[in-house]
Amino acid sequence: MSQEQIDILQRALQREKAARKASEKILEEKSLQLYNTAQELKDVNQQLEHLLDEKTSQLQGIFENINDAYLVMDLNGNVIKMNDAAIDLFGYDIEKEKINVVALIYNEDYGYAMRSFNELRTKGAFTNYTARVNTRNKGVRWVHINASVVFDKQKKPIAAQGIVRDMTDEKAAEQQLIDSENRLSALILNLESGVLLEDEYRNIVITNTRFCDFFNIPATPEQLIGQNCEHAAEQSKHLFLDPEGFVTRINTLTQNKKQTLSDELALVDGRILERDFIPIYEEGHYKGHLWTYRDVTLHRRFRENIEAEREKYSNIIANMKLGLIEVNNDDEILMVNQSLEEMSGYREAELLGKKGGEILLAKEFKEKMAGENQKRIQGKSNSYEVQARTKNGELRYWLISGAPNYNLNGKVVGSIGIHLDITELKQLELQKENLLQKLEKSNNELQEYAHIVSHDLKSPLRSIEALTSWIKEDNKGKLDEASLKNFSLIEMTLEKMEQLISDILKYSSIGATTDESEEVNLNTLIDDLKQVLYVPENISIDVVNNLPIIKGDKIKFQQVFQNLISNAIKFNDKEKGHIIIDYKDKKSYHQFSVSDNGIGIDKKYYDTIFKIFNSLKQSKDSSGIGLSIVKKIIDLYKGNIWVTSKVNEGTTFFFTIKK
Amino acid sequence: MSNLLDVLLIEDDTIEIMKLNRTISSLNLNHNIIEANNGEEALSILKEGNSLPDIILLDLNMPKINGIEFLKILKSDPSLKYLPTIVLTTSNNRKDLLECYKIGIAGYVLKPLKYDDYVSKIEKLLAYWSVNELIKA
């Protein structure tokens, strides 16, 4: 190392020493300054700390003594402090157990709670947190929380504090209010009446759907709230039959502010609205008014309809050709129509209040009337005939149809009778009866006459018979063969003549005899007939179906079967004759048939055989009246008779009898 | 032993009267036949005569008083009503038959067409009455 170098280093060391000395001096001064300052700061700090302590204890006192719950938690949510109210609210005491606020959050509000918590962390506070919390003893409670972060001296967040207000009851009350408001709104919305509530400035407070419908307003009731109604009438007036009247009336009402009910408004489309105007006063001050509108169209129409119906029936009653009387339970006349006046000859005024049966009926019918009125009281309706005496004493026949008259409570208060004058009808009926009697008499006379004629005709036959037989007897042995044959021809002719007379008498007797009607068992009848009739041995009679029991004159049925069977016997040329009687039930009538295997009938005679004196075959014991008698009887029983046949093979007679 | 009968025949027809008389003689019966041509005549016979007949044979169809009217008169008479009256007629009218029985008859015989049948009926009729005990006046 050179001297130069050493010098340089020496000089530097010198400079350095001097600098350090200067620095030490400055440091010494600064230290003193710092000490002084620190001393000052200490004083200030002490003052501040004191102040803080004061404030803290002040706050502590406030928080601990406020009614609302107060709690402090660390940044992890562990509760580190809570006042009595908080203990009471949550049911936990941190002096006894640890509790984290997360545990208190109501499940559904978790998200909201976390967001709020976040807000607390970032912004240092949140207010108006309203949510539910779980408590130990009081279940889920609605709480309102304002919270803020607590910082330490270095402005570092160390905790959070919150004031918790239990607002469950408030919330419930609020909910109730909302509910009832909702109900009211729903009610108003769905009212059958259109409602419009305006405040004193004619702004809409509330209205409903029905109101919007009535006035064809293309908006919802909610949209209308707050709208001013000053000019609403102008906008809606075209809906009404009297637009100007509508506007004027509304103006008058809103100016007068007096309650006005049931204004009637006719709309152009035919509807009719009824309107109430109700002003609302609160402690004497006008606060607005309520309009209500009701659709009374149906009601009104109904009334009109009833009126129209009433008019119609009144007209019918007044103009019908039937007499009408309304009486009370004592048979006192309350009302008669014009036709009855004409029928009876009395004016209505002469009849009112009088007893119907007394004044109008013939003596012997008054009692009947009382009985009929009794039926009305029992609620029965019916028709009956009476003889009425008109004002001028004339007797008329009336047909009365009576029905009980009820009041609104369903009690019988009298009866209403419809009267028809049937005098002419009755006379016709009487005439008919007379005619029938005459007819019966003349029928009987005819019958009598037939008997006399038949007697008178038969007597000479008998005489001739007697005389010829005497001649034969007196001239026994003197008469030749030819004369004897002629005598026997005379006898045969006489017999035929007698048979003819008997048959004519029978034929004319059908229908003239009284209508005897009894249950006739046709099976027994046929059996009896077989005994009575002469049935040759080569002929069999069979009934193939059970015959019915029918109502009628036994003798006539007997005549029918007797004639048909004896014809079948008479006109049978076969070695073995078969006669078959059959029956079919044909719902509204009985159908019978009598078949044989005899000589048959040619088709061309099918009709003529039923005509009187139309015997096809000359026969000793056939007058040709038999089938005419049968047909006449069948006619009498409203039946038919017809025949099917094949010559040489047989014949079937069918006949029906109405059930 | 059969009785001989006094028979009052009320009949307007000559041949009918002849028939009865001839029948009685041909049967060799000795009954006494009293003839009346109608009801009036019969009534006068009954009222004037000293003795009453045993039986009456009555035709129904007669002029003036007919058979039924005669029967009514007869049956309303206190003493004549006991006379057995047999109707002998052509009428088989049911109405007449009922009416006669109602008033009171002892029989109803239809006149047959054939004389032989007539004889047979009359024979039986008279035979029956001749064996009857009768109220003799």
UniProtKB/TrEMBL annotation, chain A:
Keywords: Coiled coil, Kinase, Phosphoprotein, Transferase
Alphabetical list of InterPro entries matching this protein: HATPase_C_sf, HATPase_dom, His_kinase_dom, HisK_dim/P_dom, HisK_dim/P_sf, PAC, PAS, PAS-assoc_C
Enzyme class: transferase
Kinase as UniProt keyword: yes
Gene3D superfamilies: 1.10.287.130, Histidine kinase-like ATPase, C-terminal domain, PAS domain
Stretches of the chain forming a coiled coil according to its record: 418-452
Residues covered by the PAS domain: 55-96, 309-354
Ranges of residues in domain Histidine kinase: 452-659
EC number: 2.7.13.3
Biological processes annotated in GO: regulation of DNA-templated transcription
Domain PAC: residue ranges: 127-179, 382-434
Pfam family, one: HisKA
GO function term, MF aspect, one: phosphorelay sensor kinase activity
Catalytic activity: ATP + protein L-histidine = ADP + protein N-phospho-L-histidine
NCBIfam families per record: sensory_box
Protein known as: histidine kinase
Natural source organism: Dokdonia pacifica
TrEMBL record, chain B:
Domain Response regulatory: 6-126
UniProt KW keywords: Phosphoprotein
Record bears the keyword Phosphoprotein: yes
Post-translational modification 4-aspartylphosphate, affected residues: D59
Statement: the UniProt record of this protein carries the keyword Manganese: no
GO biological process: phosphorelay signal transduction system
Top-rank lineage group of the source organism: Bacteria
Record CDD domains: REC_Rcp-like
SMART domains per UniProt: REC
Pfam families on file: Response_reg
Coiled-coil region list: none
UniProt xrefs under PANTHER family: RESPONSE REGULATOR RCP1, RESPONSE REGULATOR RCP1-RELATED
Name recorded for this polypeptide: Response regulator receiver domain-containing protein
Organism: Dokdonia pacifica
